[in-house]
Amino acid sequence: SIKKSRLIVFEGTDGVGKTTAVRFVRNILESDYGIRAAYLKGMGSNNFFGRLAKRFPSTALFLLEATWNTLKINFLREEVILMDRSYLSVISHWPEVGSKLNRAIIALAKPLLARLCRPSLAVYLFSDLDIQLKRIAGVEYNRFHSAILANPRVIAERNWRMQKLLNEFEYPVVKIDTTDIPPGIIAQTIINFLKL
Question: 3-state class of 10 per DSSP?
Fold first, then answer.
């Protein structure tokens, strides 16, 4: 049987299949195990803070959005919360996090967010860079993706920063290379990890 893992966080850079994996995992939990699961975007949501952060992108606004979405977890009634990105995505978002101001904001916010966001499991998805770039190029245009396509080295830097953060993480982390694996197999791998 599945351990009741209240919060499962999905991390990874753009184009690795986070949202697809979340949808597949949610479907399996609900259809095969009868476990109600909520889908929650930690970043890129359509609530007030998410729309504000999209319109005026800044580390402070994205952290505010992540904080708000993390607080929402306490009000959701589903047995499992599947979060598509958390504050870890914000604080590994190179090059924005490199400025002195943003480093100071992160230094203040990180301890609070680490206390608020306490997942039972973090799922880190990664992929071959060429495959990732093809996936990004194939989705609906947005300015964040166009910036990545203009400078693919950004992905490598963000991946390195995320790996460093996950190595400091005190919760279980499963890392999955999504390069040539169908979404259903990725989801089943995550489900199997939840059974341990």
Answer: strand
